[in-house]
Every structure is written in C-alpha cells, then in structure tokens.
C-alpha cells in the first residue's frame, strides 16, 4: 500500500520511456497526491496524467529555466506543499533536468525522495548481455564535434562497457566513429525501447555502422551500449 505523500517534500518520479503501462503503482499514487507536478513539457506530461486520470497543477521545469524554477519550487515547499518532478521519459536528473533542482532543494533543508522506475539505461543494460563487471553511463555526448570525438576516444580506451544516448540525426555518425576507433568492439543498439517498433540489434561496431548507414531513414530515440575491450562477462 502506498503511503500518503508528505508535505514539504520533493519527489523524483520516474515515468514511462515509451509504453505508458510501464509505471509503478507508487508513481501513480504519488502523482495523484502531490500539490504540484514540475515537468519538462506540460503538454507531454498532460498526456500521461490524462491516461491515468490524474488532475494536477503543472509547472514547467526544463534545462533552460531550472535555476529560476528551483526558487519557485522551494517557495512552494516553504508553504508546506508537496512537489513531484518528472521528465518527459524515464528517471529525472539522469541525462534530464533535475540535478540542480535537487541540490538547491536539499541545501534549503527539504526532503528529496526518489520514486524509482523506468530508465533507458537500465533497460538496455538488462538485454545487452555483455556488460562485464563495470559500466559507465555517459548519457548524451557533446554536440560539438571535437569534444564528442575526444570523449568517445577516451571512453573507448577503457576496458569497460559504456552507455550513451543518441538522437536519430546523429546515431549513424556516432556508430561510424565507434567503428573507426575499434571496428571489432561489440555494440548493442536500443531503438524505440518499450514502444511498438522497439529493436535491439547487436554486432561489432563495424557491422552496426554498416547496418544503420544502409537504412533509408532512421527514426526514434536511441541508446547505445558499447561492450568492454576484453568482452569478459565474468562476475
């Protein structure tokens, strides 16, 4: 049974990464009981709330206004309100806005509680089968070409798996860069995870690069898991 939402508490609520059924009972109950829901895109979050019959006050908290929004949320907490933070998909503050807000709320003396659930990172790792003992979560690489290439090279030098997020506009280029550094490295591509056309092709970096370069069009959201050099999965 889900406990009642506490006053003056910020909840970080994980929401579906695609399939709306992928949400916990506790997450739904929390969203129903808080006074305010802070979200990246109010229109996007409203679709989820409508699906579960949730009526709540929404405020926008995204990458471009997180600092200003934090002040407003702290003011709400000072009034004794409870606030839930959600991202458009997955777990807040994991390659999404939220970390700065959490830091400021904690510094102001208020409680921050996670309501765990969906994450593209953990979903991909669970089906990859080639992680090994250590894995690095990188999230989105820099959009600047020089920084991206340098960071990717550093990640590839390590003898450990890593996960990056990528857009459909850059995924083919990123796979090509990985293949240039090490064409034999194993790669698992997660596309449209939990959605109708989800897929998880796996092969060497060279094979994945060739496959996506040959596709006439590339759509959807992507996460890439690059295996360790040694391909040692012993735990």
Description of the molecule:
With 235 residues, the chain is α/β, with parallel strands linked by helices. It is built from 8 helices and 10 strands. The protein has helices at 25-33, 42-51, 66-78, 99-107, 120-128, 145-157, 171-181, 205-214, and strands spanning 9-13, 36-39, 57-60, 83-86, 111-115, 135-140, 161-166, 186-191, 202-204, 222-226. The protein has a 5-stranded parallel β-sheet, with helices on both faces. Strands 6-7-10-8-9 form a 5-stranded mixed β-sheet, sandwiched between helices. Strand 2 (36-39), helix 2 and strand 3 (57-60) form a beta-alpha-beta unit. Helix 3 packs parallel to helix 4 and helix 7 runs antiparallel to helix 8 (205-214). The longest helix is centred in the N-terminal third of the chain and has 13 residues, at 66-78. The model has no long low-confidence stretch (mean pLDDT 92).
Q: Top keywords for this entry?
A:
10 strands; alpha/beta; Methyltransferase, Cobalt-precorrin-4 Transmethylase, Domain 2; Cobalt-precorrin-4 Transmethylase, domain 1; elongated
């Amino acid at each position: 049974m889900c406990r009642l939402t506490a006053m003056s508490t910020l909840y970080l609520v994980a929401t579906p990464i695609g399939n709306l059924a992928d949400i916990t009972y506790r997450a739904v109950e929390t969203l129903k009981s808080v006074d305010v829901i802070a979200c990246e895109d109010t229109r996007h979050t409203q679709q989820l709330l409508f699906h579960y019959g949730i009526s709540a006050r929404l405020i926008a908290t995204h990458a471009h206004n997180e600092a200003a929004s934090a002040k407003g949320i702290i003011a709400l907490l000072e009034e004794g309100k409870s606030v839930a933070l959600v991202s458009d998909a997955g777990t807040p503050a994991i390659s999404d806005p939220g970390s700065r807000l959490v830091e400021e709320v904690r510094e102001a003396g208020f409680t921050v509680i996670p309501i765990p659930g969906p994450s593209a990172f953990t979903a991909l790792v669970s089906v990859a089968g080639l992680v090994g003992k250590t894995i690095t979560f990188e999230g989105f690489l820099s959009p600047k070409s020089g920084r991206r290439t340098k960071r990717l090279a550093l990640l590839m030098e390590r003898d450990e798996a890593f996960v990056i997020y990528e857009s459909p506009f850059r995924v083919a280029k990123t796979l090509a860069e990985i293949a240039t550094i090490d064409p034999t490295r194993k790669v698992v591509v997660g596309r449209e995870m939990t959605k109708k056309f989800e897929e998880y092709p796996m092969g060497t970096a060279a094979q994945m690069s060739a496959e996506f370069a040959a596709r006439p069009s590339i759509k959807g959201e992507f996460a890439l898991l690059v295996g360790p050099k040694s391909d040692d999965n012993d735990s």
